[in-house]
UniProtKB/TrEMBL annotation:
Annotated keywords: Nucleus, Ribonucleoprotein, Ribosome biogenesis
Function: Required for efficient biogenesis of the 60S ribosomal subunit.
Coiled-coil region list: none
Nucleus found in the keyword field: yes
Predominant location category: nucleus
Source organism of the structure: Neurospora intermedia
Protein name from the UniProt record: Ribosome assembly protein 3
Top-rank taxon: Eukaryota
């Protein structure tokens, strides 16, 4: 990853979204498996499920996203 201080907000947002989705799917793995294996779950619903998870990123301000991305870069 490039130096996060040099990243523009679009790059920070993309990096944060990736991080957020990784954390969300790890945290909710058991629940997501139950949803995916339900009798009424169809494969075309995966896109809807991913979009629903991505909506959680809107809870974080651009400043919070940058702080989290920078924090992750320091740990690498």
């Amino acid at each position: 990853m490039s130096d996060s201080k040099q990243m523009n907000q679009q790059e920070v947002s993309a990096e944060f979204t990736s991080y957020y989705l990784q954390r969300a799917t790890k945290e909710f793995a058991e629940d997501l498996d139950k949803v995916r294996t339900a009798d009424d779950f169809k494969n075309d619903a995966i896109h809807l499920l991913v979009n629903a998870l991505q909506q959680g990123t809107a809870l974080f301000s651009p400043e919070e996203q940058r702080r989290i991305v920078e924090s992750g870069a320091e740990k690498k």
